[in-house]
């Protein structure tokens, strides 16, 4: 997951490779990108960049420099691998950025799941979906406003922006330039400034400051985003070659040494033909058959813990499994299809497809002789809180569902709120008419993206309320009052919907100073998730969830 600095449609669009890249890319124009002369030969050759949040490595980016192009290979922990190519020798008035994307955990020898070509020509920017590198482009998927001489900006890569700065005027020259960025998710211009001091060059975009340090000969040496506690360290030579990807060492899903439960690697078959990889934590010495919970991740390509790159220390479902394991409850947490060790294809799946995966997980647990088939519950976070009622509405033998920030509105309404919020944050001084224009452009882009993304198309149209009215089993609703992604009043709408269907076994808690990730947070801004002093799930949230499940499933606390 990209560190959440801009949330308009970026979060909900992460389901599909094209929206992911569109939401996270932009066009920059004006000084110091001044046309053909700005794209000079690269400085200082190949290197590797290490991205740290505090002391945690969450990304590694290898860059190879030639006379004709830079090529970067970016790997964020648990997220799709991305390779970008920035040509340096192009026709006048043309600027191109080529992107290839692999599924999370894909083998080195595997083919990318998508190629994109992003091109600026004249005063327009174009997005092409190429079947493979070097193939004919056809008609563009999207057309965005730009300026003549602009270059594409890839905001997942701090390094890419630094290399564009590297080819501008001397970093040591004391000057301040104004540039314009076009966020392709909203097709809107945002002013930015580039300030060059004796030691540091700072580019400030939508309130976010990125600092760069260059060597005396102009080569990129260091970068930082202080507000996110992010630093980027440049390694060259033997140290760079020896560095491994942050995903090279597999994440451990073992139980803590002192835990009263054991962790077992499991493989869940599905009727669709793929298998899901997961971890089943089961209390020790708890009897022949124990109650169990299946966790359901939120939007985006998620591994079983729902850890988030850039939010160091956050692992929602690892904390849930530990808490419930000490209450005598087994927990099955799964990698999404096409993610981690799971099979299947993530990019073409929609919410109903993920619901089928959860049904397969329920059948898997019911077939085990150490799980009580009558005491299986579902716990879903965010989009997982939309999927759990889908499953429960058609299976009244499930013992209960817990919805953590589950949505009550259509995706169209949720995305519209997020877009308006992002526009207001990025352009605080703009007139209402200008913000309305930006919003209309963002909605038009969303229409284009929906035609290419099954998940986004379904999510925008799906209304959770009719499904909630069909659920007859016990329900828990947990909602953060400071949630700015699934807003707090949606919990009230869900509560009313369940009760309107005749379900009287519904419990709701709205938690003060709690954000979408169930962290303690007075503001709730997604851009601040990774900067909170304590980034773990709150004890209050875990306690309410565990108390309700213990009572609903008839579990007995171990210790």
What does this protein look like?
It is built from twelve helices and 24 strands. Helix 4 packs across helix 12 (539-553), helix 7 (411-426) crosses helix 8 (432-452) and helix 7 packs across helix 9. It has helices at 17-24, 158-166, 238-242, 316-325, 351-366, 384-393, 411-426, 432-452, 454-461, 464-468, 489-500, 539-553; strands at residues 25-29, 47-53, 56-65, 69-76, 81-87, 94-102, 114-121, 124-130, 142-145, 151-154, 175-183, 188-196, 201-205, 208-214, 220-225, 230-235, 261-269, 275-283, 290-296, 330-334, 371-381, 400-404, 475-480, 506-511. With 559 residues, the protein is α+β, with helices and mostly antiparallel strands. It has a 16-stranded antiparallel sheet.
Main β-sheet, spatial strand arrangement: 9-8-7-6-5-4-3-2-16-15-14-13-12-11-1-10
Question: Major sheet: size, sense and barrel closure?
Answer: 16 strands, antiparallel
Over all CA atoms, what is the radius of gyration? 24 Å
Poorly predicted runs of 5 or more residues: 1-24, 29-39, 169-175, 182-188
Mean pLDDT: 81
Beta-strand fraction estimate: 25-35%
Number of strands: 24
> Structural class per helix/strand content?
alpha+beta
Separation, N- and C-terminal Cα atoms: 34 Å
Helix content: 10-25%
Number of helices: 12
- Tell me, briefly, the overall form: globular
């Amino acid at each position: 997951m990209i560190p959440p600095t801009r949330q308009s449609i970026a979060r909900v669009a992460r389901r599909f490779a094209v929206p992911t890249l569109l939401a996270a890319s932009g066009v920059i124009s004006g000084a110091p990108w001044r046309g053909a002369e700005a794209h000079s030969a690269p400085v200082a050759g190949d290197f590797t960049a290490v991205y740290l949040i505090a002391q945690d490595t969450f990304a590694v980016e290898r860059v190879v420099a030639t006379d004709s192009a830079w090529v970067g290979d970016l790997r964020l922990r648990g997220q799709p691998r991305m390779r970008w190519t920035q040509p340096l020798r192009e026709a006048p008035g043309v600027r191109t950025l080529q992107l290839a994307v692999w599924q999370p955990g894909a083998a080195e020898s595997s083919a990318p799941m998508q190629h994109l070509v992003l091109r600026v020509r004249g005063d327009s920017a174009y997005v092409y979906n190429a079947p493979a590198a070097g193939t004919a482009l056809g008609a563009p998927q999207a057309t965005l406003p730009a300026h003549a001489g602009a270059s594409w900006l890839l905001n997942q890569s701090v390094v890419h922006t630094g290399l564009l700065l590297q080819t501008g005027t001397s970093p040591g020259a004391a000057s301040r330039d104004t540039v314009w960025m076009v966020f392709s998710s909203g097709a809107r211009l945002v002013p930015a400034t580039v300030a060059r001091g004796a030691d540091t060059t700072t580019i400030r975009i939508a309130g976010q400051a990125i600092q760069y340090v260059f060597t005396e000969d102009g080569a990129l040496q260091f970068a930082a985003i202080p507000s996110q506690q992010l630093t980027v360290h440049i390694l060259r030579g033997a140290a760079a070659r020896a560095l491994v990807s942050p995903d090279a060492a597999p994440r451990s899903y073992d139980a803590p040494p002192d835990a009263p439960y054991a962790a077992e690697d499991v493989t869940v078959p599905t009727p669709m033909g793929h298998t899901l990889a997961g971890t089943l934590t089961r209390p020790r010495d708890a009897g022949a058959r124990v109650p169990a919970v299946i966790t359901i991740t939120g939007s985006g390509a998620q591994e079983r813990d729902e850890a988030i790159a850039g939010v160091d220390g956050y692992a929602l479902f690892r904390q849930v499994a530990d808490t419930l394991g000490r209450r005598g409850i087994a927990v099955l947490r799964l990698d999404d299809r096409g993610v981690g060790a799971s099979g299947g294809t993530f990019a073409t799946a929609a919410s109903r497809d993920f619901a089928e995966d959860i049904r397969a997980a329920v059948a898997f647990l019911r077939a085990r002789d150490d799980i009580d088939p009558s005491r299986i519950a579902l716990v879903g976070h965010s989009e997982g809180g939309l999927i759990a009622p889908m499953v429960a509405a058609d299976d009244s033998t499930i013992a209960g569902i817990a919805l953590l920030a589950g949505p009550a509105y259509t995706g169209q309404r949720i995305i519209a709120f997020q877009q308006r919020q992002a526009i207001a944050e990025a352009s605080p001084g703009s007139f209402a008419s200008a913000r309305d224009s930006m919003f209309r452009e963002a909605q038009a882009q969303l229409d284009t993206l929906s035609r290419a993304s099954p998940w986004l198309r379904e999510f925008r149209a799906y209304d959770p309320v009719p499904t909630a009215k069909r659920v007859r089993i016990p329900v828990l609703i947990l909602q953060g009052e400071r949630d700015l992604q699934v807003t707090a009043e949606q919990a009230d709408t869900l509560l009313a919907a369940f009760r309107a269907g005749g379900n009287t076994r519904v419990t709701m808690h709205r938690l003060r100073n709690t954000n979408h990730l169930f962290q303690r947070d007075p503001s709730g801004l997604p851009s601040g998730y990774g900067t909170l002093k304590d980034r773990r799930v709150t004890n209050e949230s875990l306690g309410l969830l565990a108390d309700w499940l213990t009572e609903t499933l008839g579990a007995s606390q171990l210790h």
